[in-house]
Amino acid sequence: MADPVFPHQFSRARNITHTGEVFSIPHEEQLAYGTAGFRFRAEKLSFIVFRCAYVESLRARQLDSAIGVMITASHNPAADNGVKLVDPSGDMLSQQWEKYATEIVNATDEDLPSAVRALEKQMSQAEKSRISSGQTKNARVVCGMDTRLSGPHLISAARAGSALFNVQFVDVGIVTTPMLHYTVKSFNEPEFAEPTGQGYCRAISSAFRELYGITQEEQLAL
Predict the structure, then answer these.
(1) CB within 8 A of 35, min separation 6: which ones?
(2) Which are the catalytic amino acids?
(3) Cβ atoms within 10 A of the Cβ of 36, count?
(4) What rounded mean pLDDT belongs to the chain?
(5) DSSP secondary structure string, the chain?
(6) Distance of CA 24 to the CA centre of its chain
(7) Could you tell me which of 1, 24, 20 has the C-alpha nearest to residue 11?
(8) Predicted local confidence at residue 54, as pLDDT
(9) Is 57:141 a contact under the CB 8 Å cutoff?
(10) Is the pLDDT assigned to residue 203 strictly greater than 60?
(11) Which of 9, 55, 72, 96 lies in the 20 to 30 Å Cα band around 85?
(12) Which pLDDT band, with edges at 50, 70 and 90, does 202 fall under?
């Protein structure tokens, strides 16, 4: 199988920012996935988001599930941005896959094709993997962002990374991080709730009413 072709604008050498400028990332610069994901100045994020979306598309195919990509830097300054990855259950990315994401992000441009193929082969052979069987109709990357100006450009990077292996891309627009976690879980567990903003609001209000009702009953019992 031929190595995939990666767009130059999402390479370390030709990393294009949301303002259209080239912001190269030295190959010797190593980046770490932390509790907040990858979080830096927005200029650095394009190639990172592209590669993270590829990793998430592979995980989505392995599990035949929806996986999340959240473009946000939370309370950081507006000039920053970041990417957090969400597992099918709506939880944070597993530690093992944090390791895979870090390895792919830190690969040189020259080594990236072989690193991608090696990870693809490893996941194809993993226990219960759906990749080899082709049973990946539910695989999708669900992506949201906050209101930073760099968000739309990074969404396009995530879309390109997901397209590398033809995984369905779902852009849910501007959402909070909890909403993205909720949406991913809802896609994978339809009985849990509706994977929309309205569904999220209904679930939160229902939980609040239930909690308030319990509290009222406890007060009346005193």
Answers:
(1) none
(2) 74
(3) 14
(4) 89
(5) -PPPPPPGGGSSTT-B-TTS-B----TT-----BTTBEEEEGGGHHHHHHHHHHHHHHHHHHHTSEEEEEE--TTS-TTEEEEEEE-TTSSBPPHHHHHHHHHHHHS-TTTHHHHHHHHHHHHHTSTT-STTTT--TT-EEEEEE-S-TTHHHHHHHHHHHHHTTT-EEEEEEE--HHHHHHHHHHHH-TTT--SSHHHHHHHHHHHHHHHHHHHHHHHHH-
(6) 23
(7) 24
(8) 94
(9) yes
(10) yes
(11) 9
(12) confident
Residue 137: CB partners within 8 Å, gap ≥ 6? 64
- Which residue type occupies 112? L
Q: What is the pTM of this model?
A: 0.89
Choose between 42 and 132: higher pLDDT.
42
Q: Extract the tokens encoding 87.
A: 């597992």
Q: Is the CB of residue 4 less than 8 Å from the CB of residue 160?
A: no
pLDDT band at 132 (very low <50, low <70, confident <90, very high): low
| 155's tokens | 């969404």
Tokens of 125: 């052979």
Is CATH 3.30.70.1230 what the domain over 8-191 is classified as, yes or no?
Answer: no
Report d(CA 148, CA 78) in Å as an integer: 6
Where exactly are the structural domains of the chain?
8-191, 192-222
Length of the chain: 222
